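Task: fold both queries, return tokens.
Query 1:
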Amino acid sequence: MLKDQVTFRRVAAGTLLIVAPLLQALAVLVDPGTWGDDREAVSFADNPALAQVQSVLYHWSWLLMAVAVLGLVHLTRLRATRLGHVAGALTVVGYISASGLLLTDPVEWWLGRRYAPAEAQRILDEMLGLPGVMWGFQLPWMFFAFLGLPVLTVAVWRAGFFGWWVPAVVTVGYLGSFAVPYGPATAALWIAPVAGLGWAGLRILRMGDAAWAAFYPSAVREPVAAARS
């Protein structure tokens, strides 16, 4: 499979669209801050083991989603191409940036062990408020993930690959989470996109190599078909 560009990319895209959002849903479920104190300096200190697990799950979820997005962009080669390119690029940048910020989690745990919650938060805010940290790692890049992915699913829907309900579920799940405090409501909202993105991944796995290759321009498609004959 590693020698076959069509099979490898199709299977990788389909698998990651199932796995990446599932890891994010698991991360929010095991995060001590979801069910306990919303101040991470406190909740992480209450259960440092789960705090590390959720950080690892978020990290790999967002890194893998950045790769999975390339599979969705592939589905816009023939229709909604401009929208797919712009939304896809922004989404990739967003997920990679969000993953990098997870290194603040052990810092919050360390501060929470040594300072009162208010002081721990003050120190962290001062660190994250540095111009290089804020504009180089946080704003606006990290928001591109949850803003860009719904737009990208709209592009794939316009390309005719899946029904309207997929971008609807992804939009409600991820954009809706901005309207509620991080907690049980976030968990419910982030579980919803697992169904939509998982369905997209399953469709990709089931579509077969010929259907995947059909999205390539004919100049690419014909040599691939000749190599398989």
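Query 1 returned. Query 2:
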Amino acid sequence: MPLVSFWDRGAAEAESKIMDALGINLSGLLTQLVSFTLLFVLLYAVLYKPILRMLDQRAEKIKESLETAERARDDAARSSEAVEAQLTEARAEGQAMIVQAREVADRFREEELATARTDISAERERAEASIQRERDSAIEELRSQFADLAITAAEKVLHRSLDGDAHRELIDQVLEEGSNISGK
């Protein structure tokens, strides 16, 4: 045993000399270790936990903000799709309205043309009727003048005046002969 104790004492002295050479004091080292541990526990309890809590809260807010931004982007995309769909529908309605307006314009034009044709036809018929009446009137007047001329010529030829019935009979006969001549 004496050897072990010598050796232990020698090792302890060697360690002590090394520690002294490094400027390390065992009691100071133990005090510093205890102080560091107490400071670490105190800082962990007072600073580290609140800082971690604050960082977790900030991370949660950032996560919520990202989720909100994602939802807003999705809403904007849906809204954009809805607007695009409405624009497409509005374009289709506009095209349909243009087609309908063209059809209405074509129908109106056709109706106006039909009305104008009807008016022109009616005016033509009225004009033809008026012309026919004027022609008949002119022919009647010509017959009357022709009858008067024929009577005057007959009076001159016969040097005598005919009575009314004889006049009429002579006129009708002349007119009949004139119609037969013009009809041939």
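Both queries returned. Flag for query 2: The chain has a mean pLDDT of 83.
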